[in-house]
């Protein structure tokens, strides 16, 4: 099992002097990040889909083993609410595929007010080529049905395992040949850090579910104060001690 560990985004001003050296210009932050992490989840594509040239530039600026998960534009998920998905998906793929071999999973985060519609989800997932991995994060309880699980399994799309306050907020279904975990907010201090016990629990859940030849993507979305970077480093250390291969993360701070 290979666990790719990263953060949800890299352009956070309060990471300066915590993760980025104070004198490093922001235009060089991606290179600094990619030298220390092997994956990132791009959240800003949800709010404004970058042009194809931007995705191509990210590919050119990152090493060959770097993996970029990209969050689907909210135009499809929150405005269209999965209706008429052909044009939004085609536009998204027409741009994001400029990442080439750097393109990782596409994240479909559904709005919390969107009730279950397995046929609409099925129609959307059909539009993605088999070469593109898709992870789906429903956020309304009506989605937790056999019909939803069947749709995800049919398309080898991962149900996102999500955590807030150290507790799962979605079923821990295995629906694909890969895993996808998002950690939104921990309960440890200082806020919004995760404690070692909570992180160790997620390591255990992943290792119990996915085999030695499978991949799991883990992204920390608790960015304030650099918590995501610190927790990613701790999580990777715990996974390595559990005997799993883990992508590179920054060295933990000296004590």
Give an overview of the whole structure.
With 255 residues, the protein is an alpha/beta fold. It has a single domain, classed as TIM Barrel. The protein has nine helices and eleven strands. It has helices at residues 29-36, 44-47, 52-61, 74-79, 86-96, 118-125, 146-154, 196-209, 227-241, and strands at 2-8, 39-42, 67-71, 103-109, 134-137, 158-159, 161-164, 167-168, 178-185, 215-220, 245-246. Strands 1, 2, 3, 4, 5, 6, 7, 8, 9, 10 and 11 form an eleven-stranded mixed β-sheet that branches. β1, α1 and β2 form a beta-alpha-beta unit. α6 (118-125) packs parallel to α7 (146-154). The longest helix has 15 residues, at 227-241. It is globular and about 50 Å long. The two termini are 30 Å apart. The mean pLDDT is 96.
SSE layout and pairings?
Elements: E1 2-8, H1 29-36, E2 39-42, H2 44-47, H3 52-61, E3 67-71, H4 74-79, H5 86-96, E4 103-109, H6 118-125, E5 134-137, H7 146-154, E6 158-159, E7 161-164, E8 167-168, E9 178-185, H8 196-209, E10 215-220, H9 227-241, E11 245-246
CATH architecture: Alpha-Beta Barrel
**Segments where pLDDT lies below 50 for 5+ residues?**
none
Largest sheet: 11 strands, mixed
Q: Write out the CATH superfamily name.
A: Protein of unknown function UPF0759
- What is the class in the CATH system? Alpha Beta
Report mean pLDDT, rounded to a whole number.
96
**DSSP helical segment count:** 9
Shape: globular
CATH fold descriptor: TIM Barrel
Structural class: alpha/beta
Taking Cα atoms only, what radius of gyration do you get, to the nearest Å?
Answer: 17 Å
Beta-strand percent range: 15-25%
Q: What is the ordering of alpha helices and beta strands? A: EHEHHEHHEHEHEEEEHEHE
Distance between the termini: 30 Å
Protein name: DUF72 domain-containing protein
InterPro entries: DUF72, UPF0759_sf
Organism: Verrucosispora sioxanthis
Pfam families: DUF72
